[in-house]
Amino acid sequence: MTNDTITHSYFRALLENMVAMGQLAEKHGQPLSAAELVAANESALFDVVRTSFPLENLLATSDLIFHAEGPAVRGNAPSLSAFNWLSGTTEQAIRKLSTAFFDLQERNAKKLAKALDLRLTGLAPGSLYLGFAIAPPVSRLLTLDDEPVFARIKEAVKMLPSVSDAIEDEALSPLVSELLPDAAERDATIEALHKMSPTGRRGIHTLDIAAPGGSHGSLSQRERVVLADALKRPTLVNRKSGTFAGEVREIDLDANRLHLRNVPGVGSLRCVLPSLDSGAAKMMLGEFARVSGEYEADKNGKPRLLLVERVEPLPSSKQPDLLLDE
Fold first, then answer.
1. Which of the four pLDDT bands, split at 50, 70 and 90, describes residue 325?
2. Mean pLDDT, to the nearest integer, of 239-247?
3. Distances (CA, A) of 278 to 183, 214, 253, 285
4. What's the distance, Cα to Cα, between the start and end of the chain in Å?
5. Cα 280-249-296 angle, rounded to 5 deg
6. Alpha-carbon Rg of the chain, whole angstroms?
7. Does residue 161 contact residue 215 with C-beta atoms inside 8 Å?
8. Handedness of CA 10, 11, 14, 16 (dihedral sign)
9. Strands, E, within the chain: which ranges?
């Protein structure tokens, strides 16, 4: 990808070349007309105006930029199906990532993530470039407690390229844990990248991702397979065993994830289940449950991501005691 310095320097060099060409021709007694000068440089100038300047605008206004390549996005008229897949999938993935981050801070996740203002900052030719920017929800929904979470979501979105670059041939690099030391945020980010990874069915084979500051990475079917495996078998740093009880507030059947809220001494806990039956999930949603398994804690010792080995409903008689323990 380019940047504004390269674009302007190249454009200026083209203009200076036009002037120099005219001066040289006049010096040798063969002056060129304005039309001849333009004709000699028109193709290069048009290419800068058509490609580089739109891309420069994306770089200046976007939090995240995608460059899709494949048969559906070649030429100047990309497939509408491919465009819709890329824009729609990006929106779904970012809103889902935002929901997880708000849930982890025990905010009103669904309402805030739904109200998140995701902007398409533009598109540029050259296969297909799309830029996205994230604006906060309308002020009446965003409280002072929510603002730091929103800022963290923007940071996480801008980190997506760096995390995607840390996907190795058969597994995630240990660098992923360094980039995202919080296990719950790391798990949510991996889920978002898996959602964005092309399957090839829409005519998009690779997806390059970039963010302000120069970080970039790439997603393809290979990365999708590695990410899917990482979601099935999350790697925990410094595993510990524990049992926790709380209210089941968010369930994702596709990813086999749930959020346990109001956990005494913990707050919100992201949980990974080997399998999650839709009928059982509906019965659990909004109810209290006890879960056991291995978990990873943050630097303060607070559990963040639990690999569930056992889950059981919590009798209603125990629920008031649980709330009193907070």
1. very low
2. 94
3. 26, 42, 7, 11
4. 50
5. 95
6. 25
7. yes
8. negative
9. 64-69, 117-125, 128-135, 206-210, 216-219, 240-252, 257-263, 267-272, 288-297, 303-313
Six token digits for residue 184:
């719950």
Q: Give the strand order in the sheet containing 64-69.
A: 117-125, 128-135, 64-69, 206-210, 216-219
pLDDT digits (tens, 9 = 90+) for 47-103: 655 555 566 777 778 889 888 999 998 877 788 899 999 999 999 999 999 888 888
pTM, rounded to two decimals = 0.78
Tokens of 233: 């078998």
Beta bridge partners of 66: 130, 209
Q: Cα(141)–Cα(124) distance, rounded to whole angstroms? A: 33
Torsion angle of C-alpha atoms 200, 201, 202, 207, degrees rounded to 10:
-20
Instruction: Output the CA–CA distances (angstroms, integers) from residue 73 to 84, 121, 126, in the order listed.
Output: 12, 19, 9
Provide the 3-class DSSP secondary structure of residue 221: helix
Tokens of 163: 């995390």
More confident residue, 112 or 324: 112
Sign of CA dihedral 140, 146, 147, 149: negative
Mean pLDDT of 226-230: 95
